[in-house]
Structure formats: structure tokens, C-alpha cells
Amino acid sequence: MNAGNKRFILLVDERAVVRLTGEKPEEEQMGRLKELRKYVEQELNKMEDAGKRNSAVAHLYGVSLAATMIARKRGLDAELSSMAAMLHDLHAYKTGSYDDHAHKGAELAGRILRELKFADEAETDIICSAIYHHDDKLVTDSLMDEVLKDADVIHHCMNDLSKPVKEKEQARFDKLCAEFGM
Ligand SMILES: [Fe+2]
Question: How far is the CA of 59 from the centre of ligand 1 (A)?
Fold first, then answer.
């Protein structure tokens, strides 16, 4: 990460924290998340394989809930974290490919957020950054990026406790267990 990039991420995180003070009424924030979920559900309904479609819905909602909890615990923006979670794997589900899905997913999320006016430019930057970095589980990025990575890991590791934890997610999962006293 170069110095310019780091400054951008710090600014983005400051905005995320500032929004916690409540620039918009809570009902308005919740309405936006509901609308975004409706849009995502419409997109997922285009998936022909019912099993894959159900898994996609469960994953996006699971990560969204985990992101809300993690963001709240860390004093960050829960709404933006939840929105990022609802969009984070949408590109992979729409195309059926995980090839570079984080970077392509960030591009898709940016288009959706701008075209449907779900978020302003600063918010779109925060959400797209989280999606762009969400597959980089072994490195640490901005505070908001880390919320999405951790939420993704929570769902991967806790959706079915009989499944072994992936090696690349073990250290992050252990840290989360310590943070949440699990
Ligand atoms: Fe995911």
C-alpha cells in the first residue's frame, strides 16, 4: 500500500466514524438498507440453481448481520458495513465465477450504488473499498475493510460448525473469537 492510498483509507474511515454521530435519521438509514436488499434479492432470483440461490441469500444476509454486529462493537458505521456485505459477492453470484471477484465486485457495487442512488460518493468509496479488499484475508486494511473481511470469515466459519476452518481464515477467526469472547 503506498502512502497516498493509506491517506485515502484514513480519510474514508474518519468519514465512517463521523457518520456514527447520525447525520440522517435512523428510519431513513434503515429504509435504504431495505431497498438495497430488495434489489439484491431481485438479482439473486435470476439464479437458476435453487440450491446455489439459497446459499447466496443465506451468505449475504449472514455476512450482513455479522457486519452490523462487528461494526457496532467497534464504533463504526453499521449501515454502510451491512450494505457492503449485501453486495460483496454479488458479482460472483451473477457470473458464476470467483475469478478476481472482489475487484470486479467492487466495480459492480459502485455502479449499483451510483445508478440507483443508494449512497453518496464518500459512502460509495467506503463500501467499494471494503468489497475490493474483502478477499485479502491475510493482510490488514482500513477499519471498515476489516469489518467486511471479519464478517465474511464469521459466516464461513460459523454457518456450519461441523466444517473445518480454512487455513487462511484460522488466525482471523481466532482473533474474532477472542474479541467477542466466543
Ligand atoms: Fe463472501
Answer: 7
- Per-residue 3-state assignment (H helix, E strand, C coil) for 71-124: HHHHCCCHHHHHHHHHHCCHHHHHHCCCCCHHHHHHHHHHHHHHHCCCCCHHHH
Domains of the chain: 25-179 (1.10.3210.10)
Residue 19 pLDDT > 80, yes or no?
no
Q: Lowest-pLDDT range, 18-22, 48-52, 92-96?
A: 18-22
Instruction: Tell how far the Cα of 42 is from the centroid of ligand 1, in angstroms.
Output: 18
- Residues whose CB is under 5 A from ligand 1 (ion)? 89, 152
- CA–centroid distance, 151 to ligand 1, in Å, is 8
**Averaged pLDDT, 62-86:** 98
